[in-house]
Amino acid sequence: MIITKELAQKWFTVFAEKVIQDKEQLSEYDRIIGDGDHGMNMARGAQQLLSSWQETPPVHLADVFKQAAMKWISGVGGASGPLYGTAFFEMAKAIGTKEELQHEELVNVIKAGFDGIRKRGKSEVGQKTMLDVWAPAIESLEEKQLTTEILETTLTKVTALKATKGRASFLGERSINEVDPGAASSKLFFEALLEAGDLNGD
Ligand SMILES: [Mg+2]
User: Fold this and answer.
1) Could you read off the pLDDT of 34-87 as tens digits, one per residue?
2) Count of domains in the chain?
3) Within a domain: residue 53?
4) Would you say residue 202 lies in a domain?
5) Which 8-state DSSP code applies to residue 3?
6) How far apart are the CA of 120 and the centre of ligand 1, in A?
7) 20 to 30 A Cα–Cα from 139, which one of 23, 130, 146, 157?
8) Which residues are in the DhaL domain (predicted)?
9) Long-range interactions of 188-191: CB distance < 8 A, separation 24+
């Protein structure tokens, strides 16, 4: 399948709606292993993005990602603002002037987002962060086998990890079996992608 501006906008719209809907739950996860603001912060960015589209709809495919990056970087705060903002910005850069993405190009764009998070967060896979959802999601997407079940299983695996990065790492062993809020919101990001279109088809 081919990613167009319309499909990308649907992806981010579904993501924003999911974030707003799960706001309380995301903040609850963050109250346990962080500072309790993840849901509020993410929902603020999501709301701002949806509102901005009423006035300034994206013109090009990359605009969808650029506009999301701006909202997350300027309006979200916390740790998640810069991390998601960087991811979206790197994705916009990887898209450049393309107006359509083939499946393989989409995978590369998401990989660029992943690298952005990794560098900005100075983190690696296995530390119980967003990356632990992004990495397996990218792998499954590459094989055209990403499903909501895989995302569920992935989040369960991340939940079993001990946090060694960020605020949650201060909890040490007590972070085991608690849901990482960034991993939970990342799961919503990929669920939204699945809902926006049939990525495993042609
Ligand atoms: Mg927080």
Assistant:
1) 999 999 999 999 999 999 999 999 999 999 999 999 999 998 888 899 999 999
2) 1
3) yes
4) no
5) B
6) 16
7) 23
8) 6-195
9) 188/15, 188/18, 188/19, 188/22, 189/15, 190/133, 190/137, 190/146, 190/151, 191/14, 191/18, 191/148, 191/151
